[in-house]
Amino acid sequence: MKKLTKITALAAFSLSVMFANVAVAQMSKEKTVMVGGAPMYPSKNIVENAVNSKDHTTLVAAVKAAGLVETLSSKGPFTVLAPTNAAFDKLPKGTVETLVKPENKAMLTKILTYHVLAGKHSAKSIWAAVAKGAGKATMTTVQGEKLTFWTKGKDLYVRDAKGNDAKVTIADVNQSNGVIHVIDAVLMP
User: Fold this and answer.
1) Could you report the per-residue pLDDT of 84-105, keeping only the tens digit for each?
2) Could you give the dihedral angle defined by the CA atoms of residues 47, 156, 87 and 35, in that order, rounded to the nearest 10 degrees?
3) Which has the closest alpha carbon to 138: 53, 146, 101, 114?
4) DSSP state, 14?
5) DSSP-assigned letters across all residues of 139-158
6) How far is Cα 71 from Cα 63, in angstroms, rounded to an integer?
7) What are 48-93's pLDDT values in tens digits?
8) For a 10 Å CB count at each end of the chain, is N or C smaller?
9) 58 to 47, 75, 152, 154: CA distances (angstroms)
């Protein structure tokens, strides 16, 4: 009986290794984009990918503090304009530390959801909207306020409600539940 139990355990272990190898092989065939030193897999959701980017640790911490992990892990689709750590560093000293405090959750949520559009908007579709809109395109965020997209040369920019611009530095990072566009500034409603 002990021998049968060992054989069963060995068979179960072998199957789990085999399934893990199949999953790794499948992920290695995916077309990934490198963000923050990590591959972003289209089969993973926004949160599953973002946690691996060393350039987005502040954003991930803020998403957790705002209680938005479950939302951004859901089916979506979402378009996330993802500020880098360097973008957060441009804010006045102490801003991030203040925003992630529990008593400021509502303001943090407002700022973060201002970086999210409902639906999956590729850079190509945004460029087309800008061209159609005589040089700019306005889109409403899930927070409820508007962002304005515009282009200069080969670059795509987004302007917030306060008139500040962020450049899209990495476009079209596809996710299972949407797309991420990495930006170099934090947008403010």
Assistant:
1) 999 999 999 999 999 999 999 9
2) 40
3) 146
4) H
5) EE-TTS-EEEEEEETTEEEE
6) 10
7) 999 999 999 999 999 999 999 999 999 999 999 999 999 999 999 9
8) N
9) 13, 23, 28, 28
